[in-house]
Amino acid sequence: MKKALLFACISLVFCFAANAFAQSDILRMRRMADSEFRIAEKAFKEAETEYGPALTGIPAEEKMVLCKRIRTALYDNRVQYNFEDLIAQMKYKRQIQKLESYQSAANCGN
């Protein structure tokens, strides 16, 4: 009886520890998606103020960097969207829509 109770207690501790690690991974991914969104948004707005709303005359190298930032943020936000509950999904859906509009404005392709 004591062994079964001890085993149950130890199993419970390991379950809580595993859950804590999973929660920290979710929070880390959420922070990463939000950070990538802010980086892409800032890069797009800087390019927009420097080269105008149509981004005419943007150098190829700078456009490549901008498109890479937008694509990275889009990927992270699409992945995070799938892990979130309904309310948090609305936030990531708005971010994805903004990033897609930035992508089309910068003519990055898919």
Overview of this protein structure:
- This protein has about 110 residues and is mainly α.
- It has one domain (about 30-105).
- The protein is built from 3 helices and no strands.
- It has helices spanning about 1-50, 60-85, 85-105.
- The longest helix has about 50 residues, at about 1-50.
- The protein starts with a helix and ends in a 5-residue tail after the last helix.
- The mean pLDDT is about 85.
Low-confidence stretches: none
Average pLDDT figure: 85
Number of helices: 3
| Portion of residues within helices | over 70%
Please, how many domains? 1
Q: What's the β-strand tally?
A: 0
**What would you call the shape?**
elongated
Work out the radius of gyration: 21 Å
- Give the biggest beta sheet: none
Q: Give me the strand/helix succession.
A: HHH
Structural class: mainly alpha
β-sheet strand percentage: under 5%
C-alpha termini separation: 62 Å
